[in-house]
């Protein structure tokens, strides 16, 4: 008579005690000779050396591994009760909290880097405009020398360095001749700059006349800043030329004095314009204070005229101030 496993339904051998598929014990009531279905040899499949062993049943390895054993053994009379098998699966891995901590630390590191980048960008865009404004005057001074090709001409260097160390002295008065030649080149450079600076002062005067009554304060402030930078440039050159300290014996001594006076004329003219802008910027409606604003310009006029005395002196002195070349 064929028998089937009550647990999985697989066909069983006639003398099988356990299912070779799922490992479940075969339910038998009596054998053909009237004996119990399971013969006892002490205790059913229980190791004799370790009474506390909880796994009494060990399935055939050829039948394949079982997932988790859930079937209880059928106790036989006189056999100690068998314990439930322990689950084959372990508890959750203790590495899970550590992985969460690692992810949190990585997120914090990313946030710190982003904050540092934002701070650096803010510093760059806030401080950089001030750096540009601070160097603007120096850039304009350098621009005035763009057409100077002679490497020996160093207008912002030591103004009293009147001797070329690389040249040899002539036999007859070579040192004096060299000093005069170097002085001539220096004075010629500063003389040539006067024409360009005069044009800048005239431009500042024209923009003032057309805009000092403008109600837009931003427009007036921008034009006033241009006048201030022009004044700074003129004053730098005035100080350099004055510090040359040319000896009275030089053939270009009078030329040097005239060039100093010409820079002084330019300084007075641009200074009056800057003072007038300062007054204009005090008022939201400068048209109501016209006479007060133009007062600095009128103070330097020749009595009874609208001619600025410093402009007249510049125009008269400039042609004769050109340095004389010494052979």
- Low-confidence regions: 29-57, 61-92, 129-178
Reading side by side through the largest sheet, how are the strands ordered?
1-2
Strand content: under 5%
Q: Percentage of helical residues?
A: 40-55%
Helical segment tally?
Answer: 6
User: What integer value in Å does the Rg equal?
Assistant: 54 Å
Coarse shape: elongated
Query: What structural class do helix, strand and pairing data support?
Result: mainly alpha
Order of helices and strands: EEHHHHHH
N-to-C terminal Cα separation, in Å? 142 Å
Overall mean confidence score, pLDDT: 73
Largest sheet: 2 strands, antiparallel
Number of strands: 2
Structure description:
The chain has helices at 95-143, 174-211, 217-242, 253-280, 290-298, 309-317; strands at 3-4, 11-12. With 327 residues, the protein is mainly alpha-helical. It has a two-stranded antiparallel ribbon with strand order 1-2. The N and C termini lie far apart (142 Å).
């Amino acid at each position: 008579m064929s028998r089937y496993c009550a647990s999985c339904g697989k066909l069983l051998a006639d003398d099988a005690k356990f299912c070779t598929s799922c490992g479940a014990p075969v339910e038998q009531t009596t054998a053909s000779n009237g004996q119990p279905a399971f013969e006892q040899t002490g205790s059913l499949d229980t190791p004799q050396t370790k009474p506390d062993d909880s796994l009494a049943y060990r399935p055939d390895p050829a039948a394949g591994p079982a997932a988790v054993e859930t079937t209880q053994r059928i106790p036989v009379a006189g056999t100690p009760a068998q314990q439930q098998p322990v689950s084959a699966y372990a508890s959750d891995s203790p590495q899970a909290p550590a992985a969460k901590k690692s992810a949190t630390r990585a997120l914090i590191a990313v946030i710190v880097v982003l904050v540092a980048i934002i701070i650096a960008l803010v510093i760059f865009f806030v401080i950089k405009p001030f750096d540009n404004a601070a160097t603007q005057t120096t850039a304009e001074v350098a621009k005035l020398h763009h057409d100077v090709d002679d490497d020996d001409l160093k207008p912002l260097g030591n103004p009293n360095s009147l001797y070329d160390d690389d040249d040899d002295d002539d036999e007859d008065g070579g040192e004096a001749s060299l000093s005069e030649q170097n002085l001539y080149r220096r004075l010629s450079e500063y003389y040539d700059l006067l024409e360009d600076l005069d044009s800048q002062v005239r431009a500042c005067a024209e923009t003032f006349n057309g805009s000092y009554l403008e109600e837009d304060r931003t427009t007036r402030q921008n034009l006033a800043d241009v006048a201030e930078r022009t004044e700074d440039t003129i004053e730098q050159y005035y100080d350099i030329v004055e510090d040359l300290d040319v000896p009275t014996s030089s053939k270009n001594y009078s030329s040097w004095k005239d060039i100093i006076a010409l820079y002084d004329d330019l300084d007075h003219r641009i200074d009056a314009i800057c003072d007038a802008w300062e007054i204009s910027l005090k008022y939201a409606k400068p048209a109501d204070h016209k006479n007060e604003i133009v007062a600095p310009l009128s103070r330097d006029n020749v009595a009874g005229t609208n001619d600025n005395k410093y402009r007249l002196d510049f125009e008269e002195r400039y042609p004769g101030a050109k340095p004389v070349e010494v052979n």
